Amino acid sequence: MSSWQATCDLPSFAPLTQDIEADVCIVGAGIVGLTAALRLVRAGRRVVVLDSQQPGRGNTGRTTAHLASALDDRFSELARVHGLDAARMAWESHATAIDLIAAIANDEAIDCEFARRDGYLWLAPEHDSDILRRELETVHAFGWRDVEALDEAPVFGGPCLRFPGQAQFHPLKYLAGLCAALVRSGVAIFGNTRVEGVAGGEEVVVTTAQGHRVRSGAAIVATCSPICDLFAIHSKQASYTTYAIGLEIAAGIVPPGLYWDTADPYHYIRLQPGADGRDILIVGGEDHKTGQADDGERRFDALEAWTRARVPAVQQRRYQWSGQVFETLDGLAHIGPDPGGAANVYIATGDSGMGMTHGTIAAMMLSARICGEASEWQQLYAPGRHPLRAAGEFLRENANVAAQYADWLRPGEVSSVAEVAPGAGAILRSGLSRIAVYREDTGELHACNAACPHLLGSVAWNHLEKTWDCPCHGSRFDRRGEVIAGPAHTGLRVVDPRTLR
Ligand SMILES: Cc1cc2nc3c(=O)[nH]c(=O)nc-3n(C[C@H](O)[C@H](O)[C@H](O)COP(=O)(O)OP(=O)(O)OC[C@H]3O[C@@H](n4cnc5c(N)ncnc54)[C@H](O)[C@@H]3O)c2cc1C
Ligand code: FES
Question: Cβ of 205: how many Cβ atoms within 10 Å?
């Protein structure tokens, strides 16, 4: 079963096969990279985009595409950590991002099903209605006056807040439209081109795995999790795997809208119009830290059971998929100069589950900065910030990462390669090493050292996606050990399976 977006075809691009020059080199062709490329080419810059896969194959191809200016980590919490003015700026930046997506879709004639919706935050049964009261007081205090409290949330019942002016769209139709607009404007997009090095300076040099170089005046590392930073940013954000399902439902039963609750992890729901009088109810949640659980089917089933208990009219499950989100300490993205100090290198990361709007904010801010313009949101999203009032969260997340290194002392999951079933992966101990072993359905074995090339976490098997996932900062590798997602930018070290018992 695939994701609901997978029905959309995106263009493919050939790899980079020579050294080239540009004004700006963008690494990563998700919503951040492609939106930034459009802003920059419209500002007259020569832009090159490189992607290790193809546009839209990262988390933008897995989003449930709520376009929200209502922060899911809640404005009352943001106001506690950063003050009321910061909460107002966060709201304004996300609302501006939604407006920009609407404007780009309109200007470039992108048929991406953009539609305005109301958003509803309703109270999880275990929570006190004080949560909603505090949230309403905060948004009214900073000026979002038309948010209102309702006694009965549509569909889910119980007290809720209604946030007007939210939206939804089809993310891959949007990306396909962005690609077409970029190609028309002369932007060079290269697929299957993995970047291994980003060296900052007056001239930024981006080096690909094939050894080609792009020389430019600036680079945007738009790889969702930055591949240019070893530690600074990854100690301030955490990688979570989140799950989503699409259930058929007769049209008209669930009113169009974005819905989410106060639970932790929370549930996020919206309606996708379907064909033949049937809509798709998209339901997400069941998050866990990447690489720290391997029970995806149970989580899909839990989402379905949770939905059936509340919306008994849902019919069969048509879609299911998972992906990653990067949670920051304060629920705001990290957007700005590389905190490692590489000159003219910029990052956009820490989507906090709101990567469609955070990604569009990043594209606005970074393109403006590269063009020499200031942004009033610069401090709010600065990658170097240390929110002191979120210190507890910082300690909790980093203690969790430190605990993952204990895996190196644990025995293997199998004691010989013969125990690895076809289509399965398992960790085998070989002396002091842990070996990630995968057996193809044909019986062929692949083996790699389980040490993640980022900071030596021990990868774990994800049988749903058939990937090796790192429990420390969320790097992911395919079943043969090739890197799919950073912060690692190289694969696992291959081991000859004939040397294993
Ligand atoms: C199930 C799910 C539901 C979600 N729901 C929502 C939602 O409702 N609303 C919302 O706003 N957000 C949501 N998100 C979050 C959102 O999808 C992401 O935050 C967003 O797509 C990130 O966009 P991006 O451009 O930063 O990264 P990506 O889309 O991941 O793009 C990064 C690109 O970089 C490329 N890349 C990686 N490494 C390299 C390298 N070394 N060299 C070259 N290229 C490289 C990848 O191939 C990829 O194409 C959801 C996420 C998931 C998984
Ligand atoms: S992602 Fe950091 S150690 Fe693996």
Answer: 16
The mean pLDDT of the chain is 93
- Structural contact between residues 26 and 13, judged by C-beta atoms closer than 8 angstroms: no
Catalogue the long-range contacts made by 79-83 (C-beta closer than 8 Å, 24 or more residues apart).
79/138, 79/141, 79/142, 80/389, 81/330, 81/387, 81/389, 81/390, 82/330, 82/380, 82/387, 82/389
Q: What crossing angle do the helices spanning 355-370 and 31-42 adopt, rounded to 10°? A: 30
Domain for residue 225, yes or no?
yes
Mutate to test the pocket of ligand 1, among 26, 31, 63 (most ligand atoms within 8 A of CB): 63
- Given 328, 360, 377, which residue is the final one in a domain? 328
Q: Range of 225's domain? A: 4-62+172-235+331-396
Asked whether residue 345 falls in the same domain as residue 323, the answer is no
487 and 415, same structural domain?
yes
Mention every residue, 6+ apart, whose C-beta is less than 8 A from residue 277. 250, 251
User: For a substitution probing ligand 1, which of 50, 196, 206, 223 has the most ligand atoms within 8 Å of its CB?
Assistant: 223
Q: CATH number, domain at 493?
A: 2.102.10.10
211 and 257 assigned to the same domain:
no
- 55 shares its domain with 182: yes
* Helical residues (DSSP H) of 275-372, grouped into ranges: 296-310, 355-370
- 431 in the same domain as 415: yes
What is the CA(353)–ligand 1 centre distance, in A? 10
**Does 359 contact ligand 2 (Cβ within 6 A)?**
no
User: Are 199 and 253 found together in one domain?
Assistant: no
Answer whether residue 389 shows pLDDT above 70.
Answer: no
Distance 366 CA to ligand 2 centre (A): 26
Q: Is 351 in the pocket of ligand 1 (CB under 6 A)?
A: yes
Based on the fold, state whether residues 463 and 385 are members of the same structural domain: no
Secondary element (H or E) of residue 142: helix 130-142
- Domain finish residue from 328, 355, 384: 328
CA 299 to chain centre: 19
171-184 and 84-107 helices, crossing angle to 10°: 60
- The answer to whether 473 and 488 have CB atoms below 8 angstroms apart is no
Q: Give per-residue pLDDT as tens, 442-477.
A: 999 999 999 999 989 999 999 999 999 999 999 999
Q: pLDDT of 72-105, one tens digit each?
A: 889 999 999 899 999 999 999 999 999 999 999 9
In the prediction, which pLDDT does 302 show? 97
**Based on the domain organization, do 280 and 417 belong to the same domain?**
no
Q: What's the pLDDT band for 1 if we cut at 50, 70, 90? A: low
How many angstroms does the Cα of residue 116 sit away from the middle of ligand 1? 22
* Cis, peptide link before residue 226, omega less than 30° from 0: no
Total domains, the chain? 3
Whole-angstrom Cα distance, residue 11 to residue 18?
Answer: 21
